[in-house]
Amino acid sequence: MSDGIENGRSVDDPRNADGDIGPRITHGERPVPRRSSKGLSMRAVTPNAITAAALCLGLTGIRFAIDGNWSMSVLAVLTAGALDGIDGRIARLLKAQSRFGAELDSLADSLSFGVAPALILFLWSLQDLPRIGWFASLALALCCMLRLARFNAQIDEEDQPHKSAGFLTGVPAPIGGGLAFLPLYLWMATDEALFRDPVLVAIWVVLIAFLMISNLATLSWTSFKPGRSVRIELIAFVGLLGAALLLEPWLTLVAVSVVYIALLPYGWWRYRSVRRRREDARTTLA
């Protein structure tokens, strides 16, 4: 029917075909499925509160950077990384996993380990190269978000070779944010102006951004399974590491960053070995 009348109803009528009130879906939009929301359970409050705290700490790091307080800005982001490492475990311990928590965690990670480090490094060094420095900062923030988007898109896929073998794909967002600060760690430890050079910092930041979205197989915590004979030594090492972080924080962070970077080729080699053994096993069974 013409003259603005369609199926006995005005085209401008906000009711859709099912008789519900609401705007129509226009070209390029996707309908949002209806979900019954019962709110968060009390068990889910604790892990989500920790995630929210990590988000606030990451953003507070930017505030410290604006004031030129570089040590506190880095400390805020690193503390956010520590909280990010426990919120998921607490959620699993309390059996409080939720879609809301997963979305909040991704949002917190993108801001705390992508946007915050990018802006802190820009204010600290990269602003001396306004164009190139800003593009480097954008690369870090964007690649962090792309990594998290890829993770969310693949979370329900069964065919994930890296995950099934106990490895991660690319450098995780919290570790990537921490590694991006390596020039700042070196500058704080030595007060050497070379480490604040915007060209070197930009190259390093772009490299870390690439590693975050790469398909490189990296080691995960689940891949570390120390034998019973060295577990006492491992406890002693962790205790000494904590003391070193208090006494010489910047040199310790440099050492931790260098060790992680040195382990990247080992992780790649170990994954190739695991994949080769699996392929040999399939060939044998065939």
From TrEMBL:
Q: Which GO terms describe its cellular component?
A: endomembrane system; membrane
Cellular localisation: Endomembrane system
PROSITE patterns according to UniProt: CDP_ALCOHOL_P_TRANSF (PS00379)
What Enzyme Commission number(s) apply to this enzyme? Answer: 2.7.8.8
Q: What are the transmembrane regions?
A: 44-64, 132-153, 165-187, 199-218, 230-247, 253-269
Where are the annotated segments for Disordered? Answer: 1-40
EC top class, as a word: transferase
GO terms for MF: CDP-diacylglycerol-serine O-phosphatidyltransferase activity
Q: Where is the CDP-alcohol phosphatidyltransferase C-terminal domain?
A: 232-265
Q: Which reaction equation describes what this protein catalyses? A: a CDP-1,2-diacyl-sn-glycerol + L-serine = a 1,2-diacyl-sn-glycero-3-phospho-L-serine + CMP + H(+)
- The residue ranges flagged as biased composition, category Basic and acidic residues, are 9-18
Q: Which GO terms describe its biological process?
A: phospholipid biosynthetic process
Q: Which UniProt keywords apply?
A: Lipid biosynthesis, Lipid metabolism, Membrane, Phospholipid biosynthesis, Phospholipid metabolism, Transferase, Transmembrane, Transmembrane helix
Gene3D superfamilies recorded: 1.20.120.1760
Name the domain of life this protein comes from: Bacteria
Protein topology in the membrane: Multi-pass membrane protein
KW Transmembrane (keyword) present: yes
On whether Cell cycle is a keyword of this UniProt record, the answer is: no
Any matching Pfam family: CDP-OH_P_tran_2
Q: Which NCBIfam families match?
A: pssA
- Family statement: Belongs to the CDP-alcohol phosphatidyltransferase class-I family.
What protein name applies here?
CDP-diacylglycerol--serine O-phosphatidyltransferase
Please spell out the taxonomic lineage of the organism that makes this protein.
Answer: Bacteria, Pseudomonadati, Pseudomonadota, Alphaproteobacteria, Sphingomonadales
